[in-house]
Amino acid sequence: MSRKKITVIGAGNVGATTAQRLAEKDFCDVVLVDIVEGMPQGKALDLMQSGPVCGFDAKVTGANGYEDTAGSDIIVITSGLPRKPGMSRDDLLKVNAGIVKDVTLKSVSKSPGAMVIVVSNPLDAMTYVAHKYSKLPESKVMGMAGILDSARFRTFIAMELQVSVNDITAFVLGGHGDTMVPSTRYTTVAGIPVEDIIPRAKLDAIVERTRKGGGEIVALLKTGSAYYAPSSAAVQMCESILLDRKMILPCAVLSQGKYHGCDGLFVGLPAKLGANGVEEVVSFKLSEAESAALKMSADAVRELCGAVDRLGF
User: Which helix (DSSP H) or strand (DSSP E) does residue 233 occupy?
Assistant: First the structure.
């Protein structure tokens, strides 16, 4: 039986770390693609040489073209201009829409049966672009955002309470940006609602820090953006799909009828990911305030997608 194959497009910090985490999980082979000559090949060879030490047999291939990507089960798109200090995700729109369109067309032509996971920013709009040009069913195209945002939320709660992150369950919904909606009502610590444990003012501060989580790291790094946590989140999606784990994860998926104000948009919602991709968008009851916040977040995503259309993508 042949091994599954995942193509990671973009061999920068996010892409290379995604390839590393996938190789170390050892459930698939990896193709790392980048336009910079020699760079993906060098990183792939370096990764392969860590196999004897880390104990994995995954094959990692570096490439500047798409021949080696043929027959991929999943395509992870990380390529694009990274966010710089003072730059909003929206500023990235025009450049990254062109890049995502190009790599989607080239990669899907070689792997028409693949699923596509978008990591490039602005995330929700880039997932819309990938879906538009891949011509794949909506169940096969999704964006990585909510897992990362939820992980940040869980981390900040764990830091505040001095408890294990493994005891914390949290969902962050909506667009990947300042309008995201961390749901405090459905966030629990060992099953106990977080609203019963953390005072409201402190909880509001944690929610705000979560919303600005990416910007906080950009400001600290000065010359780049986050990649350890984003790559972990992308790999969790790959694992749930290829191993058919059917995990319910917050992802940018096409909303159709389950959440008011979100229809027709790729926006962060809880989704069951399995061998068939997005197998179900899970609906749950939101409070009036959460529903209004999610609609506002969806409106921001709709505006971005409209801008993509106006730019001719």
Answer: helix 228-242
Does an H or E element contain 169, and which? strand 168-169
Q: Which of 103, 102, 149 is nearest to 123 (CA)?
A: 149
pLDDT digits (tens, 9 = 90+) for 206-258: 999 999 999 999 999 988 899 999 999 999 999 999 999 999 999 999 999 89
Strands 168-169 and 29-33: unpaired
Q: Which domains does the chain have, with CATH numbers?
A: 5-143 (3.40.50.720), 146-310 (3.90.110.10)
What burial letters (b/e) apply to 27-65, b meaning 16+ CB within 10 Å? ebbbbbbbeeeebbbebbeebbeebeeeebebbbbbbbe
Helix/strand/coil for 288: helix
Q: Is 70 helix (H, G, I), strand (E, B) or coil?
A: coil
The residues with which 30 forms a beta bridge, in sequence order, are 6, 60
Q: What is the dihedral of CA 114, 250, 255, 71, to 10 degrees?
A: 0
Q: Of how many residues is the chain composed?
A: 313
- The H or E element that residue 271 is part of is strand 266-274
> Alpha-carbon torsion 253, 88, 132, 230, what sign?
negative
| Token pair listed for 58 | 């995954």
Q: Which residues contact 99 (CB under 8 A, 6 or more apart)?
A: 79, 80, 81, 120
Task: Give catalytic status of residue 176 as yes or no.
Answer: yes
Average pLDDT over residues 145-149: 95
Catalytic residue among 21, 101, 176, 302: 176
- The amino acid present at 275, given as its one-letter code, is A
The answer to whether the CB of 14 falls within 8 A of the CB of 224 is: no
